[in-house]
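Worked example 2:
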Amino acid sequence: MEQPQTFLASLVRVCLELRKTAGMQPHNVAHEGRINPSTVFRFEKQQGDWQTKTDELINGYAAIAGLKPIDVWRLALEDWGRALAASSQPGDDDEPDQTRPPRPSTETPNTHATRQGHGSGRRRGSQGPASLQAAG
């Protein structure tokens, strides 16, 4: 089975598309983001050290496209979602998804009461939710 696309690949794809659509070169992104052009080249090739300049990179791409940086992130997330949906095959739901962590429980355990041996964890004299209903 094909490996799902990473978010980084989507982010790079969106940024490249924005740059090319704007008719700009990597040095234009670097100028707008106030970074070295080599950082833009490394980002677009997904190589080397560019991660410390992520905000500057996204600001540069947003500026040349006339967008806000949050719009660049949103476009990348949407692209990533489409890529993941396209990479799933019928019948894939039969196999457990090893890349997704289990969902957290919606119930919050009362660890304080359990540790302290106080049963329900209510303070003495507390009437609980029933007292709130009678007051209302």
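Helices lie at 7-21, 26-33, 37-45, 54-65, 69-87, 111-116, 129-135. The chain has a mean pLDDT of 78.
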